[in-house]
Design brief:
Blueprint (H helix, E strand, L loop, with lengths): L2 H4 L3 H21 L4 E6 L3 H16 L3 E2 L8 E6 L4 H20 L4 E6 H4 L1 H10 L5 E3 L7 H11 L3 E3 L20 E5 L1 E2 L10 H5 L3 E2 L2 H13 L4 E5 L16 H9 L6 E5 L8 H9 L6 E3 L7 H6 L6 H14 L4 E8 L6 H14 L3 E6 L17 H24 L5 E12 L2 E7 L4 E5 L8 E9 L4 E5 L2
Parallel strand pairs: 1-2, 1-3, 3-4, 4-5, 5-6, 7-10, 10-11, 12-13, 13-14, 17-19
Antiparallel strand pairs: 8-9, 15-16, 15-18, 16-17, 18-19
Helix pairs in contact: 2-7, 10-11, 11-13, 14-15
């Protein structure tokens, strides 16, 4: 798409503000004090989207509440990556029918990746007649207009057209965390991994202008934010559509020049586009955390090809060697899928052997979940669920041993941490993260929340470190 077609114009944004003003005036004329809830499922990109939805709702005059059942307008912001997340959404949507009966004027909306799937929007239209509004990720910026259509027409509104997607700058944001923030640098995906629905529901890759990203980060740092995570379905593709020579490494360097005491993280990072330039930039930039989440998904070349990942096992291992040479202190995590259609036990064990060879700090592990509409969902899948679970358990046992060993190595050391909130452990009431994003449960005063601190690590287990702050 031409860049002019990708960017939502100032006139279109102004039009949405007119609808915002209409809705606010409508409530004021009624003497109403409406409430709204955005219930977000899934990934950090969805969280960032949800914060923009909340920002627009606040501008329309809504007071935000935490429970969809108690809201006058309830928006379920959904994820389509796994079947379990989809089932939860339908369960929650069904539960809202009771709230709708108690409050017939309630507006119920479904948005996000699930809403963009034709089979889901058709199911909502047929089986959930009390849902008033359905819109996909590409229509998020038009929420005021869509909501006004619901109010004005008293009819159901669906905005789920198949479109490549656009970029809207200047939307209001409500952040529920003053310490950490998510900043989307790009949207969409061009990779079409055979198991993944994301390219079909989020459209093609489109990068925000670097100046917009830098200014957003600058404002967050000025407001006291201490950890900022840059988001994209594949951040390593950032800039491919800009035609100005600025890639993701260049963007990191631009952000790193912003003065202040903060960490920059990023996700997700695709191995096919990871480069030595990225690793050397990470090593050189003082604000960029020496932590890399680089999903490998499978350790077997045949399975990788069937997944359409476009790299080999050896290529992935080369990247790891390169990254660790640039950053010996690097904390490395990854995503893994076990039980891809047609995968054999020997191929699954190739994945386990890669885990042993690399020695990850932590893994996010998944049993394959078929997504209707993807190529993988049509592949023969002879392995039983029991076999897949056995392979999965083997993988977990290997990784848990690595994680426990790596965490144990921290005991006795003093590390710099960002204290980001309260813990649910009464003995260690504070929650914190190391630069490598390791969870630390701390003893210390609540006044430390939102600040960096030195922590002496006194204990560990597979999933966390334990320590005391040196106040």
């Amino acid at each position: 798409m031409d860049r002019k077609e990708v960017l939502v114009s100032g006139a279109d944004i102004a039009r949405q503000r007119e609808f915002t003003a209409k809705i606010k005036a409508m409530f004021q004329a009624r003497g109403a004090h409406p409430t709204a809830c955005v219930d977000t499922f899934g990934c950090q990109q969805n969280v960032a989207d949800g914060q923009r939805l909340m920002g627009m709702l606040e501008e329309m005059g809504f007071t935000l509440v935490s429970s969809p059942e108690e809201a006058d307008t309830a928006i379920l912001n959904t994820c389509a990556v796994r079947e379990h997340a989809e089932d939860r959404v339908f369960g929650n949507l069904g539960a809202l029918s009771h709230a709708k009966r108690a409050n017939p004027e309630m507006v119920i909306a479904l948005c996000g990746c699930m809403a963009q799937e034709p089979r889901v929007s058709a199911r909502i239209k047929k089986s959930y007649p009390y849902v008033n509004l359905v819109f996909g990720p590409q229509a998020l910026w038009k929420l005021p207009e869509l909501l006004w259509q619901v109010y004005e027409s008293r009819r159901r509104v669906f905005s789920v057209e198949d479109e490549p997607g656009r970029l809207a700058e200047g939307l209001p944001v409500v952040r529920d965390d003053s310490v950490r923030a998510w900043v989307s640098v790009m949207y969409g995906c061009n990779n079409f991994c055979s198991y993944c629905i994301v390219p079909y529901v989020r459209g093609r890759e489109r990068s925000r202008d670097a100046s917009c990203v830098v200014e957003e980060v600058r404002g967050l740092v000025a407001s006291g934010c201490r950890e900022i995570t840059l988001l994209g379905q594949n951040v390593n593709s950032y800039g491919n559509d800009l035609q100005n020579g600025c890639d993701f490494s260049d963007l990191l360097e631009e952000i790193d020049r912003i003065p202040g005491d903060y960490w920059i993280r990023f996700m997700s990072s695709h191995p096919k586009d990871a480069t030595p330039k990225l690793f050397s930039t990470m090593a050189r930039c003082s604000h960029v955390a020496k932590q890399l989440h680089l999903p490998f998904q499978s350790g077997n070349d045949r399975v990788l090809a069937a997944m359409n990942r476009r790299y080999t096992r050896e290529r992935y291992l080369e990247l790891i060697r390169c990254a660790r040479a640039a950053m010996p202190e690097l904390v490395l995590t990854s995503d893994v899928i076990i039980g891809f259609p047609g995968e054999t036990e020997a191929e699954a064990m190739d994945t386990v052997s890669l885990v042993r060879e690399v020695g990850f700090d932590a893994l996010f592990t998944f049993l394959y979940s078929p997504r209707p509409g993807t190529r993988a969902a049509e592949l023969p899948d002879p392995a039983s669920r029991e076999d897949k679970q056995r392979w999965f358990d083997t993988l977990l046992a290997v990784q848990n041993e690595f994680s426990a060993r790596k965490h144990a190595a921290y005991v006795g050391s003093t590390v710099r941490v960002l204290v980001d909130g309260k813990s649910d452990d009464p003995d260690y009431p504070l929650s914190a993260r190391t630069e490598g994003n390791r969870l630390v449960r701390l003893r210390g005063g609540e006044k430390l929340i939102g600040s960096f601190a030195s922590a002496r690590i006194s204990g560990s287990n597979t999933w966390a470190l334990y320590g005391e702050t040196e106040e």
